[in-house]
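Quick review question:
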């Protein structure tokens, strides 16, 4: 784990603490927290767990934007922070595919 990944994880937890209870259901908060945990402790993106976890958060933030619960910029910021918990951006293309 790097300090950048730890910082990203801290940003996710801060978001969940500051606005999570007002803007997210408990199950949505759990999804984000579990994905962040999975990515933080992942050594690579070749395993299914990290890809599945990130995909679940991506789907969640898309729903939040589509229903008007979150702005696109806020959702993108959270998604970027969750992604930054992981081992690197090189696998983003594989997950998005």
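Suggested answer, residue by residue:
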């Amino acid at each position: 784990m790097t300090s950048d990944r730890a910082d990203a994880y801290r940003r996710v937890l801060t978001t969940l603490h500051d606005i999570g209870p007002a803007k997210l259901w408990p199950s949505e908060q759990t999804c984000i927290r579990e994905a962040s945990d999975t990515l933080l402790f992942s050594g690579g993106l070749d395993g299914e767990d990290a890809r599945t976890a990130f995909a679940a958060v991506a789907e969640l933030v898309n729903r939040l934007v589509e229903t008007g619960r979150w702005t696109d910029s806020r959702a993108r910021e959270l998604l970027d922070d969750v992604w930054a918990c992981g081992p690197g951006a090189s696998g983003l293309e594989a997950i998005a595919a």
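Why it works: The chain has one domain: 3-96. The CA atoms of residues 11 and 81 lie 7 Å apart.
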